[in-house]
Amino acid sequence: MIFYSLLLNNLCNFTKKPMNIILPGDKDYESRPSVQRKSLRINLNENIYGTFVEIGAGQEVARNFYRVGAASGTIAKSMSAYDKSFSDSIYGKEDNGRYVTQNRLDKMLNHEMDLLEKRISRDKNPDKFFFVYANTVATIDFAKKFKGHGWMGIKFQTNPNDDYSEIKLHLRFRQNEAKLQQESLGIMGVNLIYGAFYKHNEPLKLMKYLSDHIDDQSIEIDTINFSGPLFQDVDNRLISLELVRLGMTDAVIFDENGTNVLPAQVLYKKNILTLRGSYRPITKVNEEMFRKSLEAFLKEKKVKEENTIVVFEITLSNLRSTGDIDDIDYLDRAKLLCSMGHKVMISNFSEYYKLVQYLTTYTKKQLGLTVGVRNFIEIFDEDYYDNLKGGILEAFGNIFKNNMKIYLYPLLDKDKGEIIDSNNLKLEDNMKEFYKYFKVNNKIRDLEYNKEFLKIFSKDILKKIKNGEPGWEDKVPEGISEMIIKKKMFGYK
């Protein structure tokens, strides 16, 4: 195999042209080329030319390109401004004193691209596709308390006359050895660069291939954004969904602009109020649950509005409730929530205790969970907790840590005409005393409500939308019906 690699290099040096040669025994070259082959294919492409800048974990990505040979025509410069003072002199100081941030990554990409443009003449190199790859990373600490994380990104073009496109992502390490983390980082960096040039027209596949040749449990990617002319048709909310669907992370968050945001950046040391629902579509009931629970949450002793965030959560199990996940249906829900200025979380937490465990990795402050009576009763179903040694006791111990409060929205019993709240909800006999403990200790709060809204059900609205029936428009928040009609959401015709 080494012989064939040397032969390939010599042939390419002689012809000055990139050669797409499949070596013996490599039947899966196109679908899953090795790290070496990806690096070599980049090096042998005479049009690709750029800079590598890596901070915090060595020069693991650039090293892969140097090792396979033919790097002189690809790499303009590789650098590691490891010392903070030296790094500051190049990219400027960070106001918050932190270096493993998206802001730092942006500065690195932009600064190095400016240098590349200034130092390499376009007139003399009219066919070059410029790129800058950068990462800023903190690997596991000596005490092995913090496993480490990092940002990586690429700014690139696939035509010398085009504006630059960008792919930026945040990763979390799961290994317990710095060396393993460095190796995984090096592989993922190669996958990113290769994907940018050869898979940019299929961003969902590009994402999937980021973990090529890396153990599934090695790295978590919890944020990724595509931008620029190559990705003008990409909706990053769909990218968020794909991260969770592929198991690359358990939860993602995007903001009101549809931009994927780093969960840690949004949730860190915040009071968090979470509303779980299907939002298919969002109704006046959902809107009232939001307003009333936020009012109650802000009245908690230690909660201050300036340090509070509200997250609307949709779970994968909810998205799959009608079968396979429908991307169009999902985007309809997301766009409506974003249009109302909300942040949205897509998660793989079918059980509430898993959601709470996730949130408590980012904050020890007040947590609030807004639920309807029907969903709340399901929390007391012991069958949900068969996978836990401590069963339902362990689950509730996790749910009510950090002074968690449940904000309960009532249910209208259509048959009896009765309104069900925390005072008259029905549970199994063996759960009644258990429930009473949380009720007595003020862990569960009933929300104020508009009785007319209790008659609104999203499934009824959805049915009318699909069937072209009138009478649903006044049951959704202001501006939502116009948006559904204009953009023909949820099967509107």
Identify the CATH architecture of the largest domain: Alpha-Beta Complex
Helix content range of the residues, please?
Answer: 25-40%
Stretches where pLDDT falls below 50 for ≥5 residues?
Answer: 1-29
User: What is CATH's topology name of the largest domain?
Assistant: Maf protein
- What oligomeric state is this? single chain
Question: How many domains make up the 3D coordinates?
Answer: 2
Mean pLDDT: 90
Report strand %. 15-25%
Q: Which sheet architecture does the biggest sheet show?
A: 8 strands, mixed
User: What is the number of E strands?
Assistant: 16
- In the sheet with the most strands, the strands line up as 8-7-11-10-9-12-13-16
Euclidean distance between termini CA atoms = 60 Å
CATH superfamily of the largest domain: CinA-like
Q: Which CATH top level class of the largest domain fits?
A: Alpha Beta
Structural class of the secondary elements?
alpha/beta
| Radius of gyration, whole Å | 26 Å
Characteristic terms for this protein:
disordered N terminus, globular, alpha/beta, 18 helices, eight-stranded mixed β-sheet, six-stranded mixed β-sheet, Rossmann fold, 493 residues, 19% strand, 2 domains, Maf protein
3D structure, described in words:
The chain has 493 residues and is α/β, with parallel strands linked by helices. It folds into two domains: 2-234, CinA-like (Maf protein, Alpha-Beta Complex), CATH 3.90.950.20; 265-491, Rossmann fold. The chain contains 18 helices and 16 strands. The strands form three sheets. Strands 8-7-11-10-9-12-13-16 form an eight-stranded mixed beta sheet, sandwiched between helices. Strands 2-1-3-4-5-6 form a six-stranded mixed beta sheet, with helices on both faces. A hairpin with a 5-residue loop joins β7 (251-254) and β8 (260-261). The longest helix is centred in the middle third of the chain and has 21 residues, at 178-198. The protein starts with a helix and ends in a 7-residue tail after the last helix. 37% of the residues are buried. Mean pLDDT is 90; it is low at 1-29.
